[in-house]
Structure formats: structure tokens, C-alpha cells
Design brief:
The complex is a heterotetramer of chains A (328), B (317), C (350) and D (511).
Chain B: E1 17-21, H1 28-43, E2 47-50, H2 60-71, E3 75-78, H3 87-95, E4 99-103, E5 114-117, H4 121-136, E6 140-146, H5 152-168, E7 172-179, H6 184-197, E8 201-206, H7 209-220, E9 229-232, H8 236-244, E10 250-253, H9 256-272, E11 282-284, E12 290-292, E13 298-300, E14 305-308
Parallel strand pairs in B: 1-2, 1-3, 3-4, 4-5, 5-13, 6-7, 6-8, 8-9
Antiparallel strand pairs in B: 10-14, 11-12
Helix pairs in contact in B: 1-9, 2-3, 4-5, 6-7
Chain C: H1 20-25, H2 28-46, H3 53-78, H4 86-102, H5 107-131, H6 136-155, H7 165-172, H8 183-199, H9 202-212, H10 214-219, H11 224-250, H12 261-271, H13 283-302, H14 307-336
Chain D: E1 17-26, E2 29-39, E3 43-49, H1 55-62, E4 70-75, E5 78-79, H2 85-90, E6 93-96, H3 108-113, H4 127-141, H5 156-169, E7 174-178, H6 186-201, E8 205-209, H7 213-219, E9 222-227, E10 230-236, H8 242-250, E11 268-277, E12 281-289, E13 293-298, H9 304-312, E14 319-324, E15 327-328, H10 334-340, E16 342-345, H11 349-353, H12 360-365, H13 369-372, H14 380-394, H15 410-422, E17 428-432, H16 440-455, E18 459-463, H17 467-473, E19 476-481, E20 484-490, H18 496-504
Parallel strand pairs in D: 3-8, 3-9, 6-7, 7-8, 13-18, 13-19, 16-17, 17-18
Antiparallel strand pairs in D: 1-2, 1-4, 4-5, 9-10, 11-12, 11-14, 14-15, 19-20
The chains are: A mainly alpha (328), B alpha/beta (317), C mainly alpha (350), D alpha/beta (511).
Bound molecules: adenosine-5'-triphosphate (ATP) (2 copies) and magnesium ion (2 copies).
Chain lengths: 328, 317, 350, 511
């Protein structure tokens, strides 16, 4: 099969096409959507942070788990970022990225350990830690908040400035995406994540290190949410105790729209990333197209349903084709 | 000093346990008003407390009001997320002998004893429209970035702004009103969407402190900085950077600290029986002097104050 | 017809391996009920004003919507599915009620339509899940956004508040002579209906069988798809009913009513001992779970504990409850060594 | 085990793999009491025994999946103790499990090399090399499978071949195959044997588990027999006979096993006409009469279970009719079939027959829950009463009626399934492999029971892969081959030869 044919048949292609369509349609209606420096920047920038979270989420979902606590992790790590700048004045700002990653990773480790060792369903555990992490956040933050004046200018500049017309945040998100995509596709450990999600019992029989890999997936997911928290602080400049709340459903939604099967084993982080872009770009495009503020959620809902139905139709078609191929 | 249920009866005298219930916690505007309230309550030896939900959801305040009713506090000072949803809970509190003062955002008049109005709605609407008209030269497209879609005070102001625009500035068109839900990130993203949707946009009014600071932050780094005017209601501390860097020329607000201070004294006056909340009652409000209850059980703090580069340095809240 | 050898001593079959008290005492539900009573007793003794009857009124009014929705959610989760769209259906029903009432319909008629809207919403979920065959988690994430979007879109900035006082008062009224809200009568009737349906009907037996092994259920003549469809419709209808209550209680019909309630409902149901893998759970435990979260919140708020700490405690309780079950099961397995347990990852067996 | 003889005498050189007196219990179920086996280099060793004798359990202990409770396990003379399958793999033991363990979403190639893919710089998987290696493997096995397609939807046979290819490519010193041929056709089996012989000649040790004696005799040089979890005997293949092995396996002569009473055959109860489901079965027509036991015989994978499932309504069918006592049944509705009087004891008791983590009583009454309800309500008391009747009739060994059925032994589980369906008082009883995995005594009991039921006027349709069972029990043998009924052989004419001939030839060729 030629590369082109392969590309055309990939699950992600349809969703990428939908994204292009949305952008083109909106731009035709209002050229500023794409052809203004802000329009271009926001197109790339706005979804970048969610994209990081969606990539992490996709990795966890591929192992047939789910992490509902990501929104709370984003919030905690965003606040931590601000606190670090306030409490450790003069700290070189690149260091906060490391702090955010490690901190998020630790929170992910808690989730992963509970899921992998106690063998309890990820949905329940991470629903619990969603509350706990957010509660800790609120307790810690109180009615305090981080203002942009609390953070160094160079750090805040990351949230808006660009390099060769591509915003820095987008570059960071893309680097992570490429790394994750590369890892999942070309590394043994990455392939094992798929195997585990595809059939956990078989993975166990096969001798794969299921516990360890699932744990690692949660740590990575947490770390990426932590990184997203740092970027959140840079992008929005103000952080209160509710930062990132509700992102868990956006992240799961992005992954599902992007063709990551909710029962594990298939899908790519590329799909999840495109899903995140589609979700947020639609959000931004709808007002431009003239859909009233209030109806946007409904359109997003229809879109999610459409995406999973499409995915299902394709899957059924493929399995029928495979069955027919067998009865050759 | 506050041990929770301390209210019940005090020491034979009046129950001066006064609790502030803002729309949500973690909102600098309300932090300031509560600070003013605390100062006032301490000045007359009452017991101050602040409780509230983390998100400005309409129904979230009800269980807090219920709890306060059970605790038997002397007075509740509340800024309503929804004019109706908390009404019954407040009335139950009043039935239990608790005095209810609303401030900042009112409920239906029959669910509270007094409303402390930061400024007349007309005055608030007028000052913002005048500011934007001045900044965009009296003509062009403007938009409004509000708080939640159901916020009582914002909706009232927006209606008045529309009337005032129609009558006094026919050359200004209000193209859209969007809602940032008093959430930083949402307000930020809505600002971006506004600027893209309306390339001809000349100005934005954001009659909410969360909205205006998020919008200012977006504008300050965008190509529209200095081209699209922004005004509305903001706190000096949040807006200082943007006034200094030229994103914003002027914005308005009353002193939220004074607002809280006055509300606390109003609650005290009600509790001690100094006033009943009827029109014409007068009471002393410490450092702010004497106030009179106006129509509909409303007490007016004063006129909104306009902050600009010249005076912003004088304020810290 | 018998294969029993006449000479062999007849085997005696006990109904239960353990006496009744042991079977009742050593269950998740019993643990939750005991915890509930304990928390109530401790709170009544140590938190000022908690023992007052009014606490019960407020508490029940607060958790009523969760109690309602928890009933069908229990059944849905026992079949191994999940419904995340319930809170959005509450919003949609609230908006329907408000708009129609504003348009001049009496509450009775508007309420009936609102429930029908809930039924339709549930049927939409059911259609995608049972006919198209999509995972319920994904479907209801989609309809969570869709239904909420419709609700918010329909009413926009307005809120309908001019409900007849008779109805808004009714929603908050108490059963005369007791601190118990009258809405609890409706709840008790529904709860009994759901408990009977789940625990004492062939339909209920089918629900459990589906949750434990949908294949074995199908081979036993259980109509798996039909059962699930009915449950999603029930979930929609009861959520709509909760929406009506919610609207009348607060006297305010708004699109964003009850945002985020789905997670509270699911947390309470899981705390009440329902297994997220399906097949296990009971209505009594779930009611105790909802009340436990409610009482904890109410007592802690009265003790001036802030809502963040309440959230932490709720979340920790949820995690602890599943982890403890899993640890207990592990200990149990270690002791009697049975190799069969539901839930991944289990080694494949011959 | 008093009858357990001593292990074979120990030669001086250590065997590649040596197991002695391995014991393993799963809670109340004792799977192994004395697992003993000595596997030599350059040899193909057969392990035979009845269903449930403990063969697979022994394999899984060697594979590191289970840990033994007692006994000794030596590899090249050194005592080892695997705690994971990875360790066993690293030690050079490759296993083909009885049930395929493929990852359905991943490609065939990835399945072959999961966890040990060839890597280039930066640890990047070398897909090209991997694909080439896969093609080479298939070449060696003489099969054509698209290496890039996902394994989802592959036939059982193809899945089995991938498992074999996977194990072979591990290049292990010990290769264990647990019933690898169960789903394969003659050609593929031959290929497999050729490869196995090649490996033997390279000096590797192979353990081969099969229920097919012809294969054992064709391929293996040594055979070990197990019964009830214990070692019975090991002999060079030349020194033993099928009859001898069967006697060692079962502990007595088999001929006494199948007592079908002679009863008068009544009217047609079930009539199946022209049932077709494309790709699964074609134009299937047969009848079953009251008092008759009809056997559906054929090779594994012939489609017998699918036919039964379609008649019962669990699976859909495209065309044809099913009539019970003169009334046509709607398609795809088990509930309707049950109302009409059909019962199906499915082949996969653990997945389809029972709700394993539910109680004995709940399982025994699941199919009659509507009949047990009074005014729409059902109680534990009613269920227990009904379950008790069937538990005592079938002598189910269980501590109580609320015991989890998954903790019962296989035979007793099978009795619960039988009781569950007999309680529905069916007119037509389908039993799919009714004696698979149950012990010798119970097997005889099941046969007696089926025969009794027929005697009472029930029509019994029995699917069985065990030829002696078919020949002993059936009044009529229907042979299924590739989804078609290729022969209808009355009891008198049914012989091993006639059935096997029909089972391996298409209808046109059949006499
Ligand atoms: N995980 C388990 N838990 C409980 N019992 C088990 C488990 N695995 C096997 N058994 C029981 O152990 C006994 C031996 O099973 P095993 O699978 O080893 O038999 P086998 O000889 O491989 O049979 P077959 O020829 O059917 O494959 C059986 O009674 C079986 O039910
Ligand atoms: N082409 C195929 N693709 C996937 N699965 C198949 C295929 N053919 C058969 N199977 C599966 O293999 C198993 C055996 O097939 P089937 O039930 O048709 O055979 P059978 O004649 O009943 O033999 P037995 O009952 O002895 O296994 C079944 O579980 C069936 O679903
Ligand atoms: Mg076996
Ligand atoms: Mg079969």
C-alpha cells in the first residue's frame, strides 16, 4: 500500500479534514480568522494547552484506562507555577517547566499507583482524585490568586510571543506531540501500551509488564497536565483556584473525537491533538460564523457524537472487509 | 475570634455575628469588599465571617445561607448570583430573625432588608458609555464582555447602556454582548473571539472586574493594543499594568472596600434596631458618615470613580 | 425423574453459607450505613446546631436531586454502562419547564412536557448505545455537551422566575409535623419502585446478569439491548423530574442549572457500593451513600469547614471505598484462593 | 493418589526440563496433585489426559503464569522459580497457549514480535526488518496471511498459526504447544509437524498436548499420561497403544460409558429448514423428534455451535425457518425460542453458560426468572426452592445455594448449567459439548441423564467432538462439514469411519 493511500485511510485523516473545513469556512466568512496576525496566532495558540492534556489523556486511554483528574492537575500546577515565582524570586524561569512536569508526574503517579496496584477502575479513582486535587488547590489558594505582575515578563511573553510566526506555546506542544507520537510508534514500550489496551489479559499471558506500563502512562499523563498548567500560567497570566476546571471532559472528548478508542488499544496522539484543535477551533469559529454564544455547546455535542458514530461506521466497515477477506 | 456557631444570642445583647457571602471566593473584588466589611465589623466589636462557593453558580449560595440560618448568625451580607434562586433561603433566614443585606448584586427586593447600591445603575451605565465614547471618538462599533449571562447587576447595566447609547451616541453601534462567566480563561478567550469576529471593532466595555482584566491582558499582547479601546469596571491593582502600558486609558469603579464597610454597618443598624429598612431611615456608617435609606430599601454608596494614569497610583485595592 | 441413587444419603443444600446477620453485616452497604449513622451521631454530638430538626430539612432538600438521579444511575451502572448526561438533562428539563410556563402553560402541562423531553433525551442516549453500539461513556460525554447546549441556547441570558407560589412552596414544603420535605414522599415512592424493580423482579435479575456477564445473560434469554435502552430512558425521565424539582425549589429556570451534578451523582452511587464494572450494588447502599456525602457536607459546613476540605474528604472517601474493597477482596482471595474475579486484568482461563 | 506409580527412572544427564510432584490448587479446586514430566533435548514429547486433567495448568506453571504450591521444577538441572512469563521467556521457554492470546487491534507482524521487535538506532523499531521476518516465518509454515492486517477478525485457525509462528520465532530451547492443532486443517497440521520435526532435529525439546491420538502417534516419540492432576505413566511411543493410553487416561475401559436407552421415537418437535447465514453455515435442514438424541458431529470449526446458536436465536441468520411443534419462531430472539420450548446448554460454560460471580441459585433460576415471579415479583426464597430441586436431582456438590458458581469445579458448573436449562422444562434440548471438561464419573451421569430425558419424550440435539460419545449416545448422527450438513447417519450405520469420512469431505463427495 502506498504511503498516500495509507494516509488517506488513516482514522485521523477525516478529523483533520473536518478541521481544515472549519478553518476554511470560517476564513471565507471572515478573513481575519486566519489572515490577521492575531487570528493566525490564536488559531495555533488557543488549543495548544488542551492539546498537551489530550495527548496525555490519549496515552492513558490507549491502555484502556482514563484519567479524569487532569483538569485538577492543570489547576494545581498552574498555581504552583505562580507560587514558585512569588516564593522563590529570581528563579530562572525555565526551571518552572521542570517543576511543573515533576509535580504533575507525581500527581499522576498517585493515580497510577492506585489503579495499577490496587487494581481498581481508573474512572473511580481519578474521579476521586479530581475532587481531592481540586480541593487541595482551593485550600492552598484560598481567595488568593496569581496575577501577571507576580510572574517574570520573559515567562509571560512565552504565552503570547512567536518564533517564525509560530507561538512558543504551540512549539512546545508540538515538540511534546512529536515526541509522544514518535515514542508510541517506534519504541517497544510504546507498542506495549497498545497491546495492553487491546487485551489486558493477553498482555498478562504474554509477559508484558502491565503494571509498570500502566503506571508509566499515568505518570506521563500527569506530567503533561502539569506542563499544561505551567503554560496556562504563562498564557492567561492570572491563576485562581478554578484554573483548568472541567478540562477532563474536554480532554477525553478531544481524544475520542480524534479516533482514540475509549476501550483502548487503538488511536494515536496525533488524532487526539487534532481532536483538541478541532474542539477549540470550532468553539472559536462558531461566533465568527454567527452561531450565538449559547448554542455553541450544543454544536460541540453534535460534533462529538458525529465523530464517534463515524469512527464506529469505519470500524464496522473495516471489520466487515476483514471478514470478507478471510472468506476469500 | 470566630468559632462558627458563636452567633446564637451573643451575651444578652444584639447578635452582631455578621457573615459575608460573596458571589464566589477567590475573586479580588470581593476580597476587597470583605476586607472593608471586616474592618467595619471589628470596629463595632461584632463577629465577622466570610463563606461562599468556589464557583459563581446560581444555586451554590443556597446551602451556605441555610447553614448560616442554622447557625443563627445575626446578619447576612450577600451579593446574589441569581436574583430568584436564593430568595426563599434568604426569607427563611429572615423568618429566623436574621437581617439580610444585599450588596453589589441585588435579589428581588422582597427577599432582603436592604440593598447597598455601589452607585445608581444609571450612573454606572453612563460612566462606562461616556468613557468608551470618549476613547473611540464618539463613533464606531463596540461590544460588551459581561460576567455570567444571568448576573442581575450586569444585565441591568447593560440594558441601561443600550438605552443611553441609543439616546446620546447614535453613531456608536453595540454589535455583540458575550459572557465570560467571571472566569479568567473564558473571558480571555471570548475577548479573542470578539476581536476576530468584528474586525471593525473600536472598543470593548467590560462591566466586571474579572472580564476587564482578562480582556486587558489579551489586548496588551495583541495587534489590537492601542487600536481597540477597553473600559469598564476594574480594580486599580489588577489594571495598573495595563494603564501604565497604554492598553487601557481609563476605567471606573467605586471603592469595593467602602461598599463592604457600608454593608456591614447597615447590617449592624438593622440588627440593633436602629433602622428597619424603611425609606427615610438614617444610620451612621463609621468613617463613611451618615447614610439614608432611599426608594425600594436601597442605600447608595456614591458615584463611580474614574481611574486613569494620573490617579491610579493613589489606590491600593 | 431423578438421578439420585436411592441408597446414597441425600445431600443437604443450605440456602446460605452464612447466617443472615453475617450476610447483612459484612457488606459494603452495611459498612456505608454504619458509617452514615456514626457520622450522624458524631456530628450531632459535636457540631453545634446539627442536631436541630431543620438540619434534616435542609439536608434532604439539598440532596433530593442527587437522590432522585442516583436511582436510575444505580441501575445503569449495574449493567456496566454509565450516563454522564444526567445533569444536562436536568438543565434541559428546567429550561423546558420555564419556557413553557412563561408561554402560559400551567405547571402540570409544562412539567409533563419536560419529562417527555427527558424521555426523549434518554432515548437518544439509548439509541446510540444499544442500536449503534457505541460506548456509553463516549456517547454521554457528547450528549452532556449537546443537552446542556440546547438548554443554555434556549433561554440565553434570561431566567424564568415567575412560577406560581403554590408550586415553589410545594417544592420546599415539609410533611406536616415533621422536618421532612414533602418531596421525599415522591422520592420514597420512586425509591421503592426502583428497589423492587432492581431486587425483586425478573427484569432486575436481568440487570445484574448483564452487568456480570452480558454474554451469559444473552444466552439466558435476557434482552440485553432492550434492558439497557429502557434504563437510559428511565434515567432521562427521572433526571427530568429532578430538573422540575430543582427549578421549583429555586424558583428559577435556567440553562446552567445543576451544572456538574453528574459527578456528584456518580460519586455517591459508587460510594454506595455499586461496582463501576457492573453487576453489584443495591439501592439501599446508594441512598446511604448519597446521604453520607450530604450529611458530611452539612456537618462540616456547620462546623465552618470550607468547601475545599469537604471536597477533599468526599474524594478521599470515594478512593478509600474502592481501594478498601479491592484490598479486602485481595485478602479474601489470599485466604480462600478462588481464582475467579471480575475486572481486568485477570489471566485468561481455560 | 494411591495408584500413582513412581516417576520414570532418572538417567544421568539432566533433562532440559524436569518437573516432579508439582501441586497446584485454585481455592477449592485442586488442579494438580503430582505434575511430573521429563523433557529431553531433541525429542517431541506428548502430554495427554482427559479434559481437566491439569495439562494446561502444568503448562502455565512452566510458563511462569502460575506459581506452583509444591514440587520441583528444574531447567537444565537447575531449580528455577518463575514469577512472571517474561522470566520463562528469557529462560528459553516458548509457549503456545490453548486459547489464542493475540492483540486484536495490532497488526499480525506486531503481534508476532511484541516486546522483542528488531530495533535500530535510538531503539527505533525496524518495521521493514520485522515485516520481512514475518513473511519469512509464514513462508516456512507455508501459509499466506497478510502481515499488515490487524488480527481482529482472523479465523481461529489463522490465529492459531500466528501463535505457532510467534513461538517458533522465539528460537527457544523448549517449545510447548497446548492443543495447537485443535483448529487446524490437515494441510496446516502437516506443515506444523514438518517444522516441529525440524526443530527437534536441531536439538530442541518440544512438548505437544493434543486430544488427537493419530497426531500423537505420528509426531511424538514419548508420551506422558495424566489423570486427575496426577502423573500416570511415561512410555516411548513404540511401546504403547491407543487402547493402553486411553485406559491410563480414564482409569477403566471406555466402552461402558455410553448407555443410551432404547425408547420409542415420537413426533417431530423441531424442524429446521434451509437455514443460511453467509460465511457461517449454508442450507441447513434437519428435524429432531421426541425421544430422540440427534448428534451433530464434525470437526472443530465446522459450524455446529453456530447452527445451534442461530436456532436458539442468540445469533442471527439470513434465511430459513425454525419450527417448534408446528409454530415458526422469530429470528434472533432467545426469549421467543425459550417460550417455544428450546433450551441451549452452550459450549463455553464460563462465558456463555454461567454468570460466574453470581450464586448457584441465581444461575440455576436465571432462565426461569419470569416463571418464578408471582405478580411480577421474584424472591430469593422462590429461587432457592427451585434451585434446591435441581441441585439435588443433579447432585451438585456445593456448600450452599448462595455459593459463587465460579468457585465450583468444572463438572459441577456443568451440572448447574444443565439444571438451569432443564428447569425450563424444554421440548428441545440443545447440548453443545456437554461433557467437555467434566470428570469421568460425571460424564457417565450426564449421559445417563440425557438418555433419561430422551426417554421422557424430550428431543435432544447433542453437539460433540468426541466420536465415542457420538456413537454411543446418538440415535442419528448429522455430520457437519464447512457449514453444511453432509450426512445423516442412523445409529446402526454410524461408525467411526463413516462419520469421519463425512466430516472431512464435502457433500458431493460423500457416499
Ligand atoms: N484459574 C483457575 N481457577 C480455578 N480453577 C482452575 C483454574 N485453571 C484451571 N482450573 C481448574 O483446574 C483443573 C485443571 O484444568 P486444566 O486447564 O489444567 O485442564 P486440561 O488438562 O488442560 O484440560 P483441557 O484438556 O480441557 O484443556 C480444572 O478442573 C480447571 O477447572
Ligand atoms: N472463521 C472464523 N473466524 C473467527 N472465529 C471462528 C471462525 N470459525 C469458527 N470460529 C470460532 O471458532 C469456534 C469453533 O467454531 P464452531 O463453533 O463453528 O465449531 P464447532 O463445529 O461447533 O466446533 P467446536 O464446538 O468443537 O468448537 C467458535 O467459537 C467460533 O466462533
Ligand atoms: Mg487445557
Ligand atoms: Mg462448537
Amino acid at each position: 500500500m502506498s504511503r498516500l493511500a495509507h494516509l488517506l485511510k488513516a482514522r485521523e485523516t477525516g478529523i483533520a479534514l473536518a478541521l481544515v473545513l472549519v478553518v476554511v469556512a470560517t476564513t471565507v466568512k471572515n478573513p481575519a480568522f486566519l489572515f490577521s496576525s492575531d487570528g493566525w496566532r490564536d488559531l495555533l495558540l488557543t488549543p495548544s494547552i488542551l492539546m498537551l492534556v489530550a495527548v496525555g489523556q490519549a496515552i492513558v486511554i490507549i491502555t484502556r484506562n482514563v484519567d479524569l483528574s487532569v483538569g485538577s492537575v492543570v489547576g494545581l500546577s498552574a498555581y504552583l507555577t505562580g507560587r514558585v515565582f512569588i516564593d522563590l524570586p529570581g528563579i530562572p524561569w525555565p526551571l518552572v517547566f521542570v517543576i511543573g512536569l515533576v509535580f504533575g508526574g507525581l500527581l499522576g503517579l498517585v493515580n497510577g499507583a492506585l489503579v495499577a496496584f490496587a487494581k481498581v477502575p481508573a474512572l473511580v479513582i481519578t474521579l476521586g482524585t479530581l475532587y481531592v486535587y481540586r480541593g487541595i488547590n482551593v485550600m492552598w489558594t484560598g481567595s488568593d490568586r496569581i496575577n501577571s505582575s507576580d510572574m517574570p515578563r520573559e515567562f509571560l511573553a512565552l504565552g503570547t510571543s512567536s518564533f517564525l510566526f509560530v507561538p512558543w506555546l504551540t512549539i512546545i506542544a508540538l515538540i511534546v506531540l512529536v515526541a509522544a507520537g514518535w515514542f508510541l510508534r517506534t519504541q517497544r514500550a510504546g507498542r506495549e501500551l497498545y497491546a495492553i489496551g487491546s487485551d489486558p489479559a493477553a498482555a498478562h499471558l504474554y509477559g508484558l509488564r502491565v503494571t509498570q506500563r500502566v503506571l508509566a502512562a499515568f505518570v506521563v499523563c500527569g506530567a503533561l497536565a502539569g506542563l499544561a498548567g505551567v503554560l496556562y500560567a504563562a498564557r492567561y497570566g492570572t491563576v485562581n483556584s478554578q484554573a483548568g476546571s472541567g478540562w477532563e471532559l474536554d480532554a477525553v472528548g478531544a481524544a475520542v473525537i480524534g479516533g482514540v478508542a475509549i476501550f483502548g488499544g487503538s488511536g494515536t496522539v496525533w488524532g487526539a491533538a487534532i481532536g483538541a484543535y478541532l474542539l477549540l477551533t470550532i468553539n472559536r469559529a462558531l461566533p465568527v460564523i454567527g452561531v450565538q454564544d449559547f448554542w455553541q455547546r450544543a454544536v460541540v455535542g453534535v460534533l462529538i457524537l458525529g465523530a464517534i458514530v463515524l469512527d464506529r461506521v469505519l470500524a464496522v466497515r473495516q471489520s466487515r472487509r476483514l471478514t470478507e477477506a478471510r472468506n476469500r | 475570634s470566630d468559632d462558627g456557631g458563636s452567633g446564637g444570642g451573643g451575651d444578652g445583647g444584639d447578635n452582631l455575628a455578621i457573615t459575608f457571602l460573596p458571589k464566589n471566593l477567590g475573586n479580588p473584588y470581593f476580597d476587597t469588599s470583605s476586607a472593608g466589611g471586616k474592618e467595619a465589623v471589628e470596629s463595632f466589636d461584632g463577629t465577622f465571617a466570610e463563606v461562599g462557593p468556589t464557583e459563581a453558580a446560581p444555586d451554590a449560595q443556597v446551602s451556605f445561607i441555610n447553614t448560616l440560618t442554622q447557625q443563627g448568625v445575626g446578619g447576612i451580607v450577600v451579593s446574589a448570583n441569581d436574583p430568584e434562586a436564593i430568595c426563599d433561603a434568604l426569607n427563611e433566614a429572615r423568618d429566623a430573625g436574621i437581617k439580610v443585606v444585599t450588596f453589589d448584586s441585588d435579589t428581588n427586593p422582597d427577599c432582603r432588608d436592604l440593598f447597598i447600591n455601589q452607585a445608581t445603575a444609571e450612573g454606572i451605565a453612563k460612566v462606562q458609555v461616556d468613557l468608551i465614547a470618549d476613547q473611540i471618538g464618539g463613533a464606531g462599533e463596540i461590544a460588551i464582555l459581561s460576567a455570567t449571562a444571568n448576573a442581575t447587576n450586569q444585565n441591568a447595566w447593560i440594558d441601561l447602556m443600550k438605552d443611553y447609547l441609543a439616546s446620546d451616541y447614535p453613531d456608536i453601534t453595540l454589535v455583540d454582548t458575550v459572557y465570560g462567566d467571571d472566569d479568567d480563561q473564558t473571558s480571555f478567550d471570548k475577548t479573542a473571539a470578539l476581536l476576530q469576529t468584528y474586525p471593525e471593532l473600536k472598543g470593548i466595555i467590560s462591566p466586571t472586574t474579572v472580564g476587564i482584566s482578562a480582556a486587558a491582558r489579551y489586548l496588551s499582547t495583541s495587534e489590537f493594543k492601542g487600536k481597540v479601546a477597553l473600559t469598564g469596571l476594574g480594580t486599580p491593582n489588577q489594571m495598573r499594568d495595563f494603564v501604565e502600558d497604554g492598553t487601557v486609558t481609563a476605567f471606573a469603579l467605586w471603592n469595593p472596600s467602602d461598599l463592604g464597610y457600608l454593608a456591614a454597618f447597615a447590617a449592624k443598624a438593622l440588627i440593633t434596631g436602629e433602622i428597619t429598612g424603611a425609606k427615610g431611615d438614617t444610620f451612621e456608617a463609621g468613617k463613611l458618615g451618615s447614610f439614608e435609606v432611599g426608594d425600594g430599601g436601597t442605600v447608595l454608596l456614591g458615584d463611580p470613580y474614574v481611574f486613569d494614569a494620573d490617579n491610579i497610583g493613589d489606590f491600593d485595592f | 425423574m431423578t438421578t439420585t441413587d436411592a441408597s446414597a444419603p441425600a445431600r443437604v443444600y443450605r440456602d446460605y453459607a452464612h447466617p443472615l446477620w453475617r450476610r447483612l453485616l459484612f457488606t459494603r452497604e452495611a459498612a456505608i450505613v454504619v458509617l452514615l449513622v456514626l457520622v450522624y451521631a458524631v456530628a450531632a454530638a459535636s457540631v453545634r446546631n446539627f442536631a436541630a430538626p431543620i438540619t434534616i430539612t435542609y439536608l434532604l432538600l439539598d440532596v433530593a436531586a442527587i437522590l432522585f438521579i442516583a436511582l436510575p444511575m444505580t441501575l445503569v451502572i449495574i449493567t456496566g454502562e454509565i450516563d454522564l448526561s444526567v445533569a444536562s438533562i436536568v438543565g434541559l428539563s428546567s429550561v423546558t419547564l420555564g419556557t413553557l410556563h412563561q408561554a402560559g402553560l400551567p405547571i402540570e402541562a409544562a412539567g409533563t412536557v419536560a419529562i417527555l423531553v427527558g424521555v426523549v433525551a434518554g432515548a437518544i442516549n439509548g439509541f446510540f448505545i444499544t442500536v449503534v453500539g457505541l460506548p456509553s461513556l463516549a456517547v454521554t460525554i457528547g450528549t452532556l455537551a449537546l443537552f446542556r447546549g440546547l438548554a443554555v441556547g434556549l433561554l440565553g441570558t434570561t431566567a424564568v422566575t415567575d412560577f406560581t407560589e403554590f408550586w415553589t412552596d410545594l417544592a420546599k414544603s415539609k410533611i406536616p409535623g415533621t422536618p421532612i420535605p414533602s418531596v421525599m414522599i415522591v422520592f420514597v415512592v420512586l425509591a421503592i419502585a426502583f428497589a423492587v424493580l432492581l431486587h425483586f423482579t425478573p427484569f432486575g435479575r436481568g440487570i445484574f446478569a448483564i452487568g456480570l456477564s452480558s454474554e451469559a445473560a444473552r444466552f439466558s434469554g435476557v434482552k440485553v439491548e432492550q434492558t439497557k435502552f429502557i434504563l437510559f430512558v428511565l434515567s432521562g425521565a427521572v433526571s427530568a423530574l429532578a430538573g422540575i424539582y430543582y427549578t421549583l425549589r429555586f424558583g428559577s429556570a435556567r440553562g446552567d442549572n445543576a451544572t456538574g451534578l453528574e459527578l456528584s451523582v456518580i460519586a455517591a452511587v459508587l460510594l454506595g457500593g455499586v461496582s463501576i464494572f457492573g453487576g453489584r450494588g443495591n439501592i439501599l447502599g446508594v441512598i446511604a451513600g448519597v446521604l453520607l456525602i450530604g450529611i458530611l457536607g452539612s456537618a462540616l459546613r456547620l462546623a465552618n469547614v470550607t468547601s475545599d476540605v469537604i471536597n477533599i474528604i468526599t474524594g478521599a472517601l470515594l478512593v478509600a471505598s474502592v481501594v478498601s474493597t479491592s484490598v479486602l477482596a485481595w485478602v479474601h482471595r489470599k485466604r480462600i484462593g478462588a481464582g475467579i474475579k471480575k475486572g481486568p486484568p485477570a489471566p485468561a482461563q481455560d | 493418589m494411591s495408584e500413582t506409580p513412581d516417576a520414570p527412572a532418572q538417567p544421568d544427564a539432566p533433562a532440559v526440563l524436569e518437573l516432579s510432584r508439582i501441586a497446584k490448587a485454585f481455592g477449592a479446586v485442586v488442579a494438580l496433585t503430582n505434575g511430573t514430566l521429563r523433557l529431553e533435548r531433541g525429542s517431541i514429547h506428548a502430554l495427554v489426559g482427559e479434559n481437566g486433567a491439569g495439562k494446561s495448568t502444568l503448562v502455565k506453571i512452566v510458563a511462569g503464569l502460575y506459581q506452583r504450591d509444591a514440587g520441583e521444577f528444574r531447567l537444565e538441572g537447575d531449580s528455577v522459580d518463575f514469577t512472571s512469563t517474561a522470566q520463562a521467556k528469557d529462560a528459553g521457554i516458548a509457549v503456545i497457549y490453548q486459547e489464542p492470546t493475540l492483540f486484536p487491534d495490532l497488526s499480525v507482524t506486531e503481534n508476532l514480535f511484541m516486546g522483542r521487535q528488531p530495533r535500530g538506532a535510538l531503539g527505533v523499531i525496524d518495521r521493514r526488518a520485522m515485516r520481512a521476518e514475518a513473511l519469512e516465518l509464514f513462508e516456512r509454515l507455508g501459509v499466506r496471511i497478510d502481515p499488515d492486517r490487524p488480527t481482529l477478525g482472523l479465523s481461529i485457525a489463522d490465529q492459531q498459526i500466528i501463535e505457532i509462528a510467534k513461538a517458533i520465532s522465539l528460537d527457544a530451547r523448549v517449545l510447548i504447544m497446548d492443543e495447537p492443532t485443535a483448529a487446524l486443517s490437515g494441510v496446516e497440521v502437516e506443515r506444523l509437524f514438518a517444522v516441529a520435526r525440524g526443530l527437534r532435529d536441531e536439538g530442541r525439546a518440544i512438548l505437544f498436548i493434543s486430544h488427537r491420538f493419530d497426531e500423537v502417534f505420528a509426531l511424538c516419540d514419548t508420551v506422558t499420561v495424566m489423570r486427575d492432576g496426577a502423573y500416570i505413566a511415561t512410555s516411548p511411543i513404540g511401546d504403547t497403544t491407543v487402547a493402553e493410553i486411553v485406559r491410563q487416561m480414564v482409569g477403566r475401559d471406555v466402552t461402558t460409558l455410553f448407555p443410551k436407552q432404547e425408547v420409542p421415537i415420537g413426533d417431530v418437535v423441531l424442524e429446521v429448514e434451509h437455514l443460511t447465514q453467509p460465511g457461517v453455515f449454508t442450507d441447513v435442514s434437519f428435524v429432531a423428534r421426541a425421544g430422540e438424541i440427534v448428534a451433530l458431529a464434525g470437526l472443530v470449526g465446522a459450524g455446529r455451535s453456530e447452527i445451534a446458536r442461530a436456532v436458539f436465536g442468540v445469533d442471527p441468520y439470513a434465511s430459513g425457518t425454525v419450527t417448534v411443534a408446528g409454530r415458526a419462531l422469530p429470528r434472533h430472539s432467545p426469549a421467543a425460542a425459550m417460550r417455544a420450548g428450546i433450551a441451549l446448554v452452550p459450549e463455553d460454560r464460563r462465558q456463555q453458560g454461567l454468570v460466574l460471580s453470581s450464586s448457584v441459585a441465581r444461575n440455576a433460576t436465571l432462565a426461569i426468572r419470569r416463571q418464578l415471579a408471582r405478580l411480577g415479583l421474584i424472591t430469593n426464597a422462590a429461587e432457592n426452592a427451585s434451585a434446591r430441586i435441581w441441585a439435588s436431582r443433579l447432585e451438585v456438590k456445593t456448600a450452599s445455594l448462595d455459593t459463587e458458581v465460579g468457585t465450583l469445579s468444572g463438572g459441577n458448573q456443568q451440572k448447574v448449567v444443565l439444571g438451569k436449562w432443564l428447569a425450563t422444562d424444554p421440548k428441545v434440548l440443545f447440548v453443545d459439548e456437554p461433557t467437555r471438561g467434566i470428570d469421568v464419573g460425571t460424564k457417565a451421569e450426564v449421559h445417563r441423564l440425557l438418555s433419561e430425558l430422551a426417554g421422557q419424550g424430550m428431543a435432544v440435539v447433542m453437539i460433540s467432538s468426541e466420536l465415542p460419545e457420538v456413537l454411543g449416545m446418538a440415535d442419528r448422527v448429522l455430520v457437519v462439514h464447512e457449514g453444511r450438513i453432509t450426512a445423516d447417519i442412523p445409529r446402526e450405520e454410524a461408525t467411526a469411519e463413516s462419520v469421519m469420512f463425512a466430516a472431512t469431505h464435502t457433500a458431493g463427495e460423500a457416499a
